[in-house]
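hiii so um. not sure if this is the right channel but i have a protein structure encoded as tokens and i wanna go backwards to a sequence. like what aa goes where. can anyone help
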């Protein structure tokens, strides 16, 4: 890249070139994942949870990876959280378990018209 900074290389998997539709779908999934993480973390921050605990709790529940950091870390649990915080994290867990796009399609108008 340093030698030819303006070169455009196609994205490949092995020897096969990936179509633009696949790249768009992957980018869309990553965008939805990031927005979901930020929105749920911000919602937890609004409920009074500290930053480290809020972000790590969302990442832990969205990815189903176990304990987070801070007040939801490995030496603590989610038992001290209030009802709204538990509901937000339960929604994050559903998003992670059922996959983001599967759950979010329920909120589209086109899904309910059929």
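sure thing!! here u go:
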């Amino acid at each position: 890249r340093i030698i030819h900074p303006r070169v455009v290389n196609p994205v490949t998997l092995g020897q096969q070139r990936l179509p633009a539709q696949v790249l768009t779908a992957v980018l869309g999934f990553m965008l939805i994942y990031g927005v979901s993480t930020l929105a749920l973390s911000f919602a937890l921050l609004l409920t009074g949870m500290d930053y480290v605990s809020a972000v790590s709790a969302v990442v832990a529940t969205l990815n189903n990876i176990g304990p987070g950091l801070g007040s939801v870390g490995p030496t603590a649990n989610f038992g001290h959280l209030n009802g709204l915080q538990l509901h937000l994290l339960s929604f994050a867990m559903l998003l992670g378990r059922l996959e983001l796009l599967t759950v979010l399609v329920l909120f589209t108008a086109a899904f309910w018209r059929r």
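oh and The CA atoms of residues 11 and 19 lie 8 Å apart.
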